[in-house]
Amino acid sequence: IRSEARTISGAINGSRKTGKVITKAVAAQAESPASAASKPGHELLLFEALREGLEEEMDRDPRVCVFGEDVGHYGGSYKVTKGLAEKYGDLRVLDTPIAENSFTGMAVGAAMTGLRPIVEGMNMGFLLLAFNQISDNCGMLHYTSGGQFTIPTVIRGPGGVGRQLGAEHSQRLESYFQSIPGIQMVACSTPYNAKGLMKAAIRSENPVVLFEHVLLYNLKERIPDEEYVLSLEEAEMVRPGEHVTILTYSRMRYHVMQAAKTLVNKGYDPEVIDIRSLKPFDLYTIGNSIKKTHRVLIVEECMRTGGIGASLTAAINENFHDYLDAQIVCLSSQDVPTPYAGTLEEWTVVQPPQIVAAVEQLCK
Amino acid sequence: MAQLTHRTSSLLKPLSFATRHLSSTTPITIETSLPFTGHNIEPPSRSVETTPQELLKFFRDMALMRRMEIASDSLYKAKLIRGFCHLYDGQEAVAVGMEAAITRKDCIITAYRDHCLFLGRGGKLVEAFAELMGRKEGCSKGKGGSMHFYKKEGGFYGGHGIVGAQVPLGCGLAFAQKYSKDENVTFAMYGDGAANQGQLFEALNMAALWDLPAILVCENNHYGMGTAEWRAAKSPAYYKRGDYVPGLKVDGMDAFAVKQACKFAKEHALKNGPIILEMDTYRYHGHSMSDPGSTYRTRDEISGVRQERDPVERIRKLVLAHDLATEKELKDTEKELRKEVDDAIAKAKESPLPDPSELFTNIYVKGYGVESYGADRKELRAVLP
User: Fold this and answer.
1) What is the pTM of this model?
2) Could you read off the pLDDT of A166-189 as tens digits, one per residue?
3) Chain B partners of A182 at a C-beta cutoff of 8 Å?
4) Antiparallel, parallel or unpaired: β B214-220 and B275-280
5) In what residue span(s) does the Dehydrogenase E1 component domain sit (chain B) (predicted)?
6) Where are the beta strands (DSSP E) in chain A?
7) B368 and A101 in contact by Cβ < 8 A?
8) ipTM attached to this prediction
């Protein structure tokens, strides 16, 4: 079911920019000039892209507000909300005490009346404390109230394995949230899609969990000047190819692209897709790719047991079994708490040599 | 002896000039049963202004709620209501008194003992019974059940199953009210069991920090399911638990005390931020229909409270004492309400079960033009057996 490009409708308090909204914008390669931008655009870092998206949405709709620890005066622990409290005031960019359960609950309560809060978890791992609020209240209220209430919240924060941050601060929680009915999950990986997904998530009427990665905040890219919003349910074709489909998201995209360089030198032609949408999966794009290449490799940072890769494997097997020439290979991070020692931490996540070896094995 | 008969005979005078000299809007002053106890605040006065119209309305509303809960009891035993059913009889004064003090623009949010609060906020009997029986005409289309009654137009935000989780939501509602500057308040209700939840104190801290117009109402019925309050809480003085947040202890079986306290609390919250109200109330049924209610308390205790503090009886006595209606008229009203409830149940029974396609509706709001259902983005269709 393809997304239809529709301009935003519906009453929103305050002024609305009447700029055209591009819904099916697929990220172009950073060096390719044939992107959606007609002007050269401007260069920025990923956290600045997130901030730009956030700021544009806050300008556009006065109901958008931010809740989080140290988001206001401090500017955000990853500088995503820097300068916003001075601009919009303390009530719109709210510094909360360290009470994840309650301020997530407060965000849900505020959303029930029509506000559009964005909850920032300082680290995705801290949102485990708010799991009840996210699962029961955020995800289920639209259903249990028979459609009376919508919960347009965005829950975002950095997750993933960083540089020796220790086990509790290096959690990959996509798998924990994926079974919650009623929420959508997206993972951003470049400044372009970070801004687009942030804007789409804020505009969506559903609760969206936006997964960022600690190590990707300083990525630099040139993004268009004009306003653009990406679709929350579409995957991104990073590198078209013929031999094997590699599905990935977030930081692993960069490991895959690194491995792709080696693979191209060895004569393989991998097709790399950044799935972006973790719930629901974009089986249209993925399916078309599988029909072309007949081989799938999933590379993810999530846990092996019950992770995103496991669900994706099941979904692909169910839907595209006839098109597969080989078993789906899923490379995920090890089912261990992330160790502190650098070498051990390196081997917790999937490294480019492992990806190269897997592709070679798959394409035999 | 002679004096007694003389007094009773004057009460049984036929409906003539004696009973109808009060017009329905003449103010009457009633003293609450007990004085209020304040924590860090000057309690309001014991005298409550009311009118005959309001008194009769209180009687009618509370009798209706009582009737509805008893009827739900029989429906549950007849297996028409399944799962969990938490009944509110005995606590009606809290719902009715609160409703009298506020408007529909103020928000109420509570836990799972929500049937009567739903009625108070403008919910219809048919909607309530249909939801309890899982039918299409229920307030949540049959998909919520007993613990998930909501009424957006009435300002009733539910209806929540997890103990204590509704209090941060209530503070969020208050936050939104402060954000839009609309001079309304939120009543976040919880029980004595939930009073020991950490998220309550977190939410209270934030509400006090930002002066949110949130009123936390602890409906203290003295038992957290099977555990008495003194066995669960070191300090059962729940109105004092706010520490820096002022609190008020109210007799929750007296609808006028509740009304006075809620009015006072609303004024306070709009000016000074949160306040805690502890309603000292009692439930006659067990925690839910699967709990007999007698293993952790004696039947004598239950019947004692019923005799001495029953909220509906108190209003009945007040109505009779002020000569606003006769015994017979009140009995007729109760019969009428019973019929109303029975009619609603019959109508709800006729309502069909939800369509199988309803399994997949209202999970997502179809936003931005894309259909999305499951993890694999297929449109799910099913035919239920």
Assistant:
1) 0.84
2) 888 888 888 889 889 889 999 999
3) 363-364
4) parallel
5) 60-356
6) 42-45, 64-68, 93-95, 116-120, 154-159, 184-187, 208-213, 220-223, 236-239, 244-248, 270-274, 277-279, 296-303, 329-333
7) no
8) 0.80
